[in-house]
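Q: Sequence in, structure out?
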Amino acid sequence: MTAESNHLKSRVTELEECNKLALSLTSVMGIYETLDAIGEFCKGVCRVDKVAILLHDPTTEEDAQTLVRSVTPGDKAIDHRVNQVVSGWFNNHKGPFRSDDIAATLRIPDGTARMLNLGAGLAIPLETDGKMIGFINMVHPRGGGSFTEDDERVASAIAPLAAQFIQRAKVHTSLSEDNRRLKTVVKQQTRSLLLGESGKMEEVRRLVSTAAQTSSTVLLLGETGTGKEVAAKSIHFESTRAEKPFVAVNCAAIPATLFESELFGHERGSFTGATDARKGKFELANGGTLFLDEISAMPLDLQAKLLRVLEDRTISRVGASNDMHVDVRVIAASNIDLTAAVASHAFRSDLYYRLNVIPIHLPALCERKEDIPLLAQRFLEEFSGGAKVFDDGALAGLQAMPWKGNVRELRNSVERVSVFVEDRIITAGHIAKTALQHSPSVSTTLKQLISELLQSKEEDANVLEELEKEIVGIVLDQTGGNITQAARLLGIDRKALARRVEKHSADQSEQKP
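A: Exactly. Output:
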């Protein structure tokens, strides 16, 4: 075989290996898998036993750290001091480093025996956007092989591709770690909201833990504000589906005409306004959990379709001709008695029995008043950062209140106290001053205000807007004009409140002469 044929065969092999590397890199997302693939490529193409890949942060210029060493089984890795010296060499030179004697070229007279036993070396910088993010370092033992111009050419050719995939993998790994940390925080937060030392809450936590170990449907029952969504999230994050999506749907907030599209999705052109295909909530929750809150508000015709999905695990987008398999765990919730809804034919009995596999009742706060002090202190610690506490009198006062809005109302009220009371120790007097007491005077005053507006209103005047303006003004006065705090107290989005304030200001300006 001629030298030309050998060269051609070598080039073909190089191209094949480069193609394998590219395919391998496109199929992995983790940083270490990416580095392993690059290291194995270099070992094969450059016929070398020892490969190290070092990365560093170009923005902070931190010292390079060896993240991966590819070595022959039983052999020793490249001494990290060699990698550090090579890193220093790159700080003063541009382009690849190639030498037949690493110790002599890098002037390592006092190196360890392992370092001095190294012979030829080849190091290729990894660069993205003109900045070096690390390098690939390959070595032969003393008396072993050497690196050719072809080795340097091939390694230099794949270095930009390797750098791009390393950057992608670093971003993906970082996002994955952030996502895991976020889910851990959410899991801890949701679990902490199922607080309580009462027997009823101990039973709820037991049932939540039991339900989390299965994929059965769960039916959460309880008044508004008792923490049904919190319980649903706890079940999800304690289950094997925790890494998959948790999708919540408020059935009472979806117009009847859009219900099917919202849950199952639709194809482009399937109805007026469907300009693009869209995934439904079942598709978005695939592999995870779909929480259907206020399930009693679901139209009867759609209840039949939901029952079919629960039985067959298949959905069909509006306008589609084919079915789609989904793996979704359904948790439903209701604040009304579904057995009564079934009796009045407002809810399908077969769907009720299908949902009611694991029923969990969330007790009203008045059923577990012994938990109120614990909840109140925990909420205050959260909102004040631990800077404020309730005294015994304040806790006794809170415990005596009816809390018709349950835990949600208690939480919002404690937030209001945290905002308005500047003292560290919050007393019963502070509770009274912040209007937390449930006296009929508030309702009476509101009725008087509405009555006065109705009697004095001008023709075509919008009483609802006048009431809104008054309420917004009162809350802004109490928060010193802080829109973020005011929005939180009103329970609306900050941007929505800002738009209302701007509108009321514009209306007032127009009325001035």
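The first strand starts at residue 50 and ends at 55.
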